[in-house]
Design brief:
Blueprint: H1 7-17, E1 24-28, E2 41-42, E3 52-53, E4 57-60, E5 70-71, E6 73-77, E7 91-94, E8 106-109, E9 113-116, E10 119-122, E11 132-133, E12 144-146, H2 154-162, E13 167-171, E14 175-181, E15 185-186, E16 197-198, H3 201-211, E17 215-222, H4 226-239, E18 242-246, H5 257-264, E19 266-270, E20 274-275, E21 281-285, E22 288-293, H6 297-315, E23 326-329, E24 341-348, E25 354-356, H7 366-369, E26 373-377, E27 388-393
Parallel strand pairs: 6-7, 14-17, 14-18, 15-16, 18-22, 20-24
Antiparallel strand pairs: 1-13, 2-12, 3-11, 4-7, 4-8, 5-10, 9-10, 19-21, 21-22, 23-27, 24-25, 24-26, 26-27
This protein binds ligand LQZAQKY5 and molybdate ion.
Length: about 400
């Protein structure tokens, strides 16, 4: 166990070695949802560009107000219209979104105004700035509104449109290659023969990569031989920015991935003190970053979520951030400790406590589907009823 790298050190090492692998280009804002911004966006205008009314009502100067005074309505300003300076001692009829005329410093909503013979009476003394949305309330010119590395959301598209921006600079999608390995695997749709199982990691990895906004360029499968593994890895290295594989990274004679990596490139780390997912391998193949995920399906899922997701994020130009975690109390005890960081598949009960799924085998995937997230138990830590541990909902990955 002493030769295993700690979870934190492995994360740090992968982060340190990773860099952006994609070029950037300009794209129309309307086509940019989910793309990664390559340059900070700095506002060139104020939003809103002018003081404007938050209500339908009347604009006036508070210094002109007197109890019972009847104000002449000297102009009518709808949204989009050009204003005239407010004539002293009068008020202006104004509508939501319309510019505040020079000289006015408050707006009274029409429900609080009496109209007598076309004149307006304001019963209560208005307050300075009431119902006025000042110029730049939302955004000030010169302000950085989105940082390079952020993924464009629908909110960003609204925000950038409010600045009048039509084109932005984004990174090209990251091209990811996926290799699955194993003599026993056949694709869904074929007839199972004795000793065979269906390949679940290939489709799962493909879906995880696609969901993260990257492009799955090629999915290959290799039998458990050095030759097939090497040929497939060479093919993927040539056409992809990053390569992921599943299986073949443990210590058996049928595990060839690590041997091929040593031949084709440099292995940075192998075997991490985590459960599940121990035999994870990280390498560089002629400049192409590579992560070999262990073949047990839950090990593949866990190592994708914690390591591959981060590597792909950095390579695609995004920030290297782990998902948000929450401290939750647990509803069970486990005195036995292990010398690895553990990622239990758990759900939150109606009592608000976290409960581990009864099936934690790294070969079992249904348990993950029936759970809500990971409980991170640090190495050598017992689990005590009522104590809190970090919970990472699957929705954050
Ligand atoms: N003597 C030792 N044996 C093993 C060790 C060890 O330290 N010493 N580590 C175990 C651990 S932990 C893991 S995790 C596995 C990882 O092994 P590999 O990455 O080499 O994976 P395989 O042996 O190829 O497969 C493991 C398991 O997963 C199934 N599998 C593989 N690929 C897929 C796929 N695409 N879809 C569905 N299922 C897949 C495969 O059939 C095996 O059952 O090694 C332990 N052994
Ligand atoms: O550490 Mo391996 O991933 O479980 O079964």
């Amino acid at each position: 166990m002493s030769t295993l790298l700690s979870f934190d050190d492995a994360l740090e090492e992968i982060k340190q070695k990773a860099s952006v692998r994609v070029a950037d280009h300009s794209i129309g804002l309307s086509n940019s949802i989910g793309r990664v911004l390559s340059q900070d966006i700095v506002a060139e205008i104020f939003v809103p560009p002018h003081d404007n009314s938050a209500m339908d009502g009347y604009a006036l100067t508070i210094e002109d107000w007197q109890a019972g005074k009847q104000f002449t309505v000297s102009q009518r300003i709808a949204a989009g219209q050009v204003t005239q300076p407010l004539t002293s001692g009068t008020c202006a009829r104004i509508f939501t979104g319309a510019s505040i005329p020079a000289g006015a410093n408050t707006v009274v909503m029409q429900e609080n105004v009496q109209l007598i013979n076309g004149k307006a009476i304001f019963d209560e003394q208005p307050k300075q700035g009431n119902n006025i949305r000042p110029k730049g309330q939302d955004i000030k010119a010169g302000q950085t509104v989105i940082k390079a590395g952020d993924k464009i959301t629908s909110m960003h598209i609204g925000l950038l449109s409010s600045l009048g921006i039509t084109d932005i600079s984004v990174y090209a999608p990251l091209r990811v290659g996926i290799l699955t390995t194993g003599d026993e695997l056949i694709p869904a749709g074929e007839q199972l023969q004795a000793g065979q199982i269906f390949n679940s990691n290939g489709p799962m990895l493909s879906a995880l990569v696609t969901q993260a906004g990257h492009e799955v360029t090629r999915c290959l499968h290799a039998k458990d031989t050095l030759e097939e593994t090497e040929t497939a890895l060479r093919t993927l290295m040539l056409s992809c920015d990053v390569v992921l594989s599943s299986g073949g990274v443990s210590v058996g004679e049928e595990d060839h991935v690590k041997g091929v990596l040593e031949k084709l490139g440099t292995v940075h780390l192998w075997k991490i003190a985590i459960k599940p997912g121990k035999p994870l391998v990280h390498a560089t193949l002629e400049g192409v970053p590579f992560l070999g995920l262990p073949g047990n399906p839950s090990s593949t899922l866990v190592t994708y979520h914690w390591f591959a997701r981060l590597l792909l994020s950095i390579c695609s130009g995004q920030k290297a951030e782990l998902p948000q975690s929450y401290l939750v109390d647990v509803g069970f005890n486990r005195s036995k400790t292990i010398q690895r960081d553990e990622f239990l598949r758990v759900s939150i009960g109606e009592d608000g406590l976290a409960y581990a799924h009864p099936q934690q085998s790294s070969g079992a995937l249904l348990a993950a589907c029936e759970s809500q997230g990971y409980l991170h138990i640090k190495a050598n830590t017992p689990i005590e009823y009522g104590c809190s541990y970090s919970f990472y909902p699957f929705s954050g990955f």
